[in-house]
Design goal:
This protein has helices at about 1-35, 40-50, 60-70, 75-90, 90-95, 105-115, 115-125. It is mainly α and about 130 residues long. The chain is globular, with a radius of gyration of 18 Å.
């Protein structure tokens, strides 16, 4: 019985430690973004995405898109928004009301993605079934 309890305690500690590591990576990425060090921020965001194993990353993908947009890499920014739509359900309302996406990027991406939006959205909806 002691072994089982110790195993659960160990798993809890490991899980908690990993969660703290993920939080620190995301915090670092956001601080780098605030300091306008977008290239390094993108590296940290991508590390976070890789380690998070696909949990809801909609806002993180948008934060990466913002960084690419600020670096004038509009195609990369739009690609991250496409992923946010098709993988995590970023909606047309998110383009308007999200506090995460840059307003100029939102307008630009909507104009570029207008014809593809519903196809990307259907791809996301298919994952819910």
């Amino acid at each position: 019985m002691k072994k089982i309890i110790l195993s659960f305690v160990f798993l809890f500690v490991v899980q908690f430690s990993f969660s703290g590591e993920l939080d620190s990576i995301l915090t670092k990425a956001r601080l780098l973004t605030e300091k306008k060090n977008y290239t390094e921020a993108i590296k940290e965001y991508e590390n976070y995405i890789k380690l998070s194993k696909g949990e809801n990353l909609k806002d993180v993908y948008i934060e990466v898109a913002n960084c690419y947009f600020y670096l004038n890499k509009k195609e990369a920014a739009v690609n991250y928004i496409k992923d946010a739509i098709s993988k995590y359900g970023f909606t047309d309302e998110d383009f308007i009301y999200s506090s995460v996406i840059d307003e100029k990027l939102s307008s630009y991406a909507l104009s570029v993605l207008y014809d593809d939006y519903f196809k990307l959205r259907k791809k996301y909806l298919a994952t819910l079934k």
